[in-house]
Amino acid sequence: MKKIFALVLAAVTLALCLTGCVYEDLSVKLNKDGTGSIAATVGLKKDFVDNMMAGSDPFEGKETQEIEVDGDKYIAYTETKEYASFDEIEKALAEMTYETGDFGEMPDMNDDADETPAEINDELSACEIILTEPVPEAAEIKDDHIFKSVKITKDGSKYVFDAVLKPLEGDYQGYEMSDIIKVSVSVEMPAKISAYKNGTVDGNKITFDLSDMSEELELYAECKTASIAPVIICGVLVLGCVVAFIVIRKRK
Question: Theoretical Cys-Cys bridge with 177: which of 24, 91, 104, 170, CB 3.0 to 4.6 Å?
Fold first, then answer.
């Protein structure tokens, strides 16, 4: 899971003018017993895959699905891993990095216009971009760690998820990486969320607002599970009353 967020951005040519070409979703689940899981989804815009991948499959060997995010369709795959403790989840999240890789064979942008597929010509017209230099092998991200810090704690019945997201810095062919990559992070807590920062809550799940990946952002959620202590105390009191009632009746 250390590099589950591997971002395949090498040879992204015309698609760079399409904001949110790459979609990344990270879903964390925390259980009452201190275990949990992380599910990571990686997606590419369907138009990019269909029109610009020259017939190659960037997800070869992986089971993919078509998903829709903010009105855009993506071809994506998901990987999930279970963890035995919150410490393991902390470590996995802290070590996650953005990486660049290889999309596969791309159309040659140095070919004559007559040899360029019609779909690519359409993208050129729509984006008003002309590439005159050879495409670099890979895009660069200045600091590839996703999180600056991650802390998950359980103190009695109180659970806290507190992480700081690093700004997504760097650029590619003049485009900010924070505009190219669309990211979402959500956390499912063991109980209804009672306090949070920078997110939208639905019961025990929070989805954080990462609309601006160029800024450092704290991701915080807190909840409290029902304590069994009051139940035990009430049970003891009831039992005591029953015993006292029986003793008094026998004395009579």
Answer: 170
Which phi and psi angles does 216 have, rounded to 5°?
-65, 140
- Identify the band that residue 9 occupies on the pLDDT scale cut at 50, 70 and 90: very low
Alpha carbon distance 17, 180 (integer Å): 8
Owning domain of residue 234: 14-251
**Structure letter (DSSP) for residue 216:** -
Is the overall model pTM greater than 0.70, yes or no? no
- 3 pLDDT band, cuts 50/70/90, is very low
Kindly report the backbone phi and psi dihedral angles of residue 164, in degrees, each rounded to the nearest multiple of 5, phi listed first: -120, 120
Which bin fits 201, alpha (ψ -120 to 50), beta or left (φ > 0)?
beta
Which pair of structure tokens corresponds to residue 30?
């925390």
Within 10 angstroms of residue 14's Cβ, the number of other Cβ atoms is 23
6 found inside a domain: no
94: in domain: yes
How far is it, in rounded angstroms, from Cα 77 to Cα 214?
25
3-state SS, 75-102, equals: EEEEEEEEECCHHHHHHHHHHCECECCE
